TrEMBL record:
This is SsrA-binding protein. It is found in: Cytoplasm. It comes from Lujinxingia litoralis. The lineage of its organism: Bacteria, Deltaproteobacteria, Bradymonadales, Lujinxingiaceae, Lujinxingia. One of its GO terms (cellular component) is cytosol. InterPro entries: SmpB (IPR023620), SsrA-bd_prot (IPR000037), SsrA-bd_prot_CS (IPR020081).
Length: 154
C-alpha cells in the first residue's frame, strides 16, 4: 500500500540561490497546532536551513504561523524543530555538510500518509553570474516552446 503524498510547500528560492547536489527525506517533530497550521499551508521556508547540534539535525528559521483556533497554548512560529533520520543517513549528511561551501537547505515540506516529511538538500551557493545564466536558459527554453507551439498550431 503506497502512502499518498500531498505537497505543503516548496522552497523555490533555494533552487534559485543554490545548486542542489543531493536530496534526502527526513521526518519532523511537530506539535499538534503546527500540524493543523501546516494543513492550512501556513508555512514559509525562505530563510530556513538545517544544522547539526550534538549529532542531531535541526530545522532552523522555518516559520509556521500560529494556528488561529488553538487554545492559549500555541506554538512559537520560528522555534527550532528536530529532524528525524536514521543514524547512517545522519552520518552521510554530516560528512557532506562539513565540506567547505556546502549547506543544508529544506527544499520541500509534504504529507506522506499522515506524517510530515521534509526534503533536505545538500547545496552549494550560486554566484550572481550563475543565477543570470539560469535565467537566460529558462527564457530561451520558454521562447523555443512558444515558437514551437506557434509553428505547429496550424
Amino acid at each position: 500500500m503506497s502512502d499518498a503524498v500531498k505537497s505543503i510547500t516548496r522552497n523555490r528560492k533555494a533552487y534559485h540561490d543554490y545548486f542542489v547536489d543531493d536530496e534526502l527525506e527526513a521526518g519532523l517533530v511537530l506539535l499538534g497546532s503546527e500540524v493543523k497550521s501546516l494543513r492550512q499551508g501556513k508555512v514559509n521556508l525562505t530563510d530556513a536551513y538545517a544544522r547539526f547540534d550534538k549529532g542531531e539535525l535541526y530545522l532552523v528559521n522555518a516559520h509556521i504561523s500560529p494556528y488561529e483556533n488553538a487554545t492559549h497554548i500555541n506554538h512559537e512560529p520560528e522555534r527550532v524543530r528536530k529532524l528525524l533520520m536514521h543514524k547512517r543517513e545522519l552520518r552521510k549528511l554530516s560528512n557532506k555538510a562539513n565540506i567547505a561551501g556546502f549547506t543544508l537547505i529544506p527544499l520541500a515540506l509534504y504529507f506522506k500518509g499522515s506524517t510530515v516529511k521534509c526534503k533536505i538538500g545538500v547545496c552549494r551557493g550560486k554566484k550572481l553570474f550563475d543565477k543570470r545564466e539560469d535565467l537566460r536558459k529558462r527564457d530561451a527554453a520558454r521562447e523555443m516552446a512558444r515558437n514551437h507551439a506557434r509553428n505547429h498550431r496550424r
